[in-house]
Design a protein that fits this description.
Shape: globular
Order of helices and strands: HEEEEHEEEE
Structural class: alpha+beta
Radius of gyration: 20 Å
Strand content: over 45%
Largest sheet: 8 strands, antiparallel
Distance between the termini: 28 Å
Helix content: 10-25%
Number of strands: 8
Length: about 180
């Protein structure tokens, strides 16, 4: 009987927790003017072992209103390790997914990009990137993840050097 009562109480708590995280994550968002864009992409993934993976991305961004296009090539290597810890004393942790998922992931790679609609003269970038991911599976096919990323960038024809740090929190839900 206690187990059934605990399950019934967990549903509203999960909804409340998700609502609080959603409000915290979107509270500071500032929207830009809307534009019509198309972002086709080809992704190739090669798993070398349970912990090593290589990937190649070939995205093209196209602004339909201005006819501007840019293309990128992204080469990455991933290394994953560790088992997810228990979140909230394990009450929300999805044990089945946790057995098959590594809790942390290091990614490093190269990004090269340039504009396509003006012979590559307006935009050109080369960057080395490094990322660290923390992933926690929750019940109900929900994944909580946090990412910290740094880019070492060389921009334009003069290859002006800059750095960029980014962090990202996300909830992902995969329906059945």
């Amino acid at each position: 009987m206690n187990r059934a009562r605990s399950r019934a109480a967990a549903g509203p708590r999960q909804v409340l927790l998700a609502l609080l995280v959603w409000l915290a994550a979107t509270g500071g968002a500032d929207a830009d003017d809307a534009s019509k864009e198309l972002w086709p992409e080809i992704d190739l993934w090669l798993r070398l072992s349970p912990v090593w993976r290589l990937s190649l991305f070939l995205p093209i961004a196209s602004n339909i209103e201005t006819d501007y296009r840019e293309g990128n090539i992204v080469l990455q290597a991933d290394y994953a390790w560790g088992k997810p810890g228990r979140l909230y004393n394990g009450r929300l942790l999805d044990e089945g997914r946790a057995e098959n998922m590594e809790a942390m992931l290091l990614r490093w790679g190269y990004l090269g990009g340039k504009s396509l609609s003006d012979d590559g003269q307006a935009y050109e970038e080369k960057a080395l990137l490094a990322e660290w991911h923390l992933r926690v599976p929750l019940k109900g096919r929900v994944l909580l993840s946090h990412r910290v990323r740094t880019d070492l960038r060389w921009l334009g024809d003069d290859s002006d050097f800059s750095t960029r740090w980014r962090g990202h929190r996300a909830w992902r839900w995969k329906g059945t």
